[in-house]
Amino acid sequence: MKHRHSLWLLIVVSLLISQKTGYCEESSAVVKHQGLVYAEVSGAGNEARSLQLDLFLPTTSEPPPLVVWIHGGGWRNGSRRNPKLMEVTENGYALASLSYRFSKEAIFPAQVHDCKAAIRWLRANANRYGYNAEWIAVAGSSAGGHLALLLGTSGDVTELEGEVGGDLKQSSSVQAVIDYFGPSDFVLRGKTQPERAYTNQSGSYALLGGKDGKVPEQMERLASPATYVSTDDPPLLIFHGTADKTVLLDQSDRMVELYDAVGLDVELITLEGAGHGGKRFFEGDSFQKAIHFLNAHRPD
């Protein structure tokens, strides 16, 4: 009985430690740190909750550069589990996949505040976990693509920085962005896709505080990556399907237009007949183009 009690106590202590520091699993190719807490925030009903990320590290001789994945789900659902770009770890990159608050917990700009907090935390803890955070690429799909774009264009925007997390002296800037069919300009979307922009068909309606079929234009501009494009923004790769009815192709065309206007590095890859998502975006030739983009812009 005494031994059984000791074993039970050991299990309880182990669970408590794992909840606080995350779970580490090591395989022959990748070391996984899951459930790492990067910030504590107020969730629904002002209840405190932890924001977590998962970290995947390839076994390399030098600290690998970092790619951060932001999941989609209309800013109202989705999961950091099973990130779409997991295979970057087979190409010499570390990968972090993060959670953020949904619109039912807090409206914009809480989501980008969370993402920036994750970037700062990842920089502060680079030596601890063994990756290179001087250069960080960020990628995301749909709502996650929007947040990835926003991280890229709002590096110098104070009101989008926020004070989430405990690493406020760290930079939240990113050095490369891959956007998979994310919205970039909510003002434009209100003109070309009002049936989504101003109804519950789209998660952006709740995200931006929509009410009675209207969204404040100030919020549309505040949340639009297009608002902040400037000459010091990072290189950008965009994937978008020509048959996407959820986020129209004009959202990606808009980013290309703005990047071209100030001479920035941008490429839009359209997938003929593709809708809003699907394996085609993350496998085969598309994945190789993403790796080529990362390799072209990573530090030597």
TrEMBL record:
Pfam families for this protein: BD-FAE
Annotated PANTHER family: AB HYDROLASE SUPERFAMILY PROTEIN C4A8.06C, ALPHA_BETA HYDROLASE
GO molecular function, one term: hydrolase activity
4Fe-4S keyword on record: no
Protein's UniProt name: Lipase/esterase
Gene3D superfamilies per the UniProt record, alphabetical: alpha/beta hydrolase
Domain BD-FAE-like: 53-256
Key words, A-Z: Hydrolase
Source organism of the structure: Rhodopirellula baltica SH28
